[in-house]
Write a structure and sequence with these properties.
The chain is α/β, with parallel strands linked by helices. 50% of the residues lie in helices and 15% in strands. Helix 2 crosses helix 4 and helix 7 packs across helix 8. The chain starts with a strand and ends in an 8-residue tail after the last helix. The structure holds 2'-deoxycytidine-5'-monophosphate (DC). The site of 2'-deoxycytidine-5'-monophosphate has 13 residues, from helix 2 and helix 4.
Length: 220
């Protein structure tokens, strides 16, 4: 069974998806990590962001694997490095590359094949898994999302002002929503889940009970 969770940056998708997957005993797929890993690798190889073919080629060939909570490129653990502000700032060049997206969507489908999986991103319910059994679209107000992001960065030792987070968030929203392919949008059959004022566990509780309603009787 496939459960998709899409939504804007800072809506809490990763934390919710990870915890929901653990509760259900499903695999968890962080698709943003794929775009980030390609961007990280392109930077390491000094690939020009104007070189669409090289970016596409890298997305097609990068030896990207997930080992539990860790993200690996070859045998190198990139879990932390792909979350740096530098990588965050350039990942859009990969996300905007239509052919690179096609390779990554293909990889997402291969990883999900025959699995019970919770997958999160921007286009999981619309492009990658249009036939998924359960689709969610997490939202939160811009102010709440920025506060969460600021707290997350502070916890990682990267203090930033709320005004800076809000400005960057606005830019990312704009890019995510207007991307030619894989734009951020709820699938027509997605359940919209507003999360303002809710704790992580309250959101996960809500999603878990909705998913369990779809599960066969054998899985209480
Ligand atoms: O969720 P995140 O911040 O880790 O995503 C990193 C970038 O990748 C962000 O710019 C949006 C993009 N992305 C995407 O275009 N499609 C996805 N399925 C997941 C992420």
């Amino acid at each position: 069974m496939i459960v998709t969770i899409d939504g804007p940056a800072g809506a809490g998708k990763s934390s919710v998806a990870r915890r929901l997957a653990a509760r259900l005993g499903f695999r968890f797929l962080d698709t943003g990590a794929m775009y980030r890993a390609v961007a990280w690798a392109a930077t390491r190889r000094a690939i020009s962001w104007d070189d669409d073919h090289a970016i596409e080629d890298l997305a097609a060939r990068l030896p990207l694997t997930f080992d539990g909570q860790r993200v690996l490129v070859g045998d190198q653990d990139v879990t932390e490095s792909i979350r740096s502000p530098e990588v965050t700032a350039v990942t859009r060049h990969v996300a905007d590359n239509v052919r690179a997206r096609a390779h990554l969507v293909d990889l997402q489908r291969r990883l999900a094949c025959g699995q019970d999986i919770v997958t999160e991103g921007r286009d999981q319910g619309t492009v990658a898994f249009p036939d998924a059994a359960c689709k969610f679209f997490l939202t939160a107000s811009p102010a709440e999302r920025a506060r969460r992001r600021q707290a997350e960065l502070a916890a990682r030792g990267q203090p930033v002002t709320l005004a800076d987070v809000l400005a960057q968030q606005e830019q990312r929203d704009q890019r995510d929503q207007t991307r030619a392919v894989g734009a951020l949008a709820p699938a027509p059959d997605a359940r919209i889940v507003p999360t303002d004022g809710m704790t992580l566990d309250q959101v996960v509780d809500q999603l878990e009970s909705l998913v369990r309603a779809y599960l066969p009787q054998a899985q209480p």
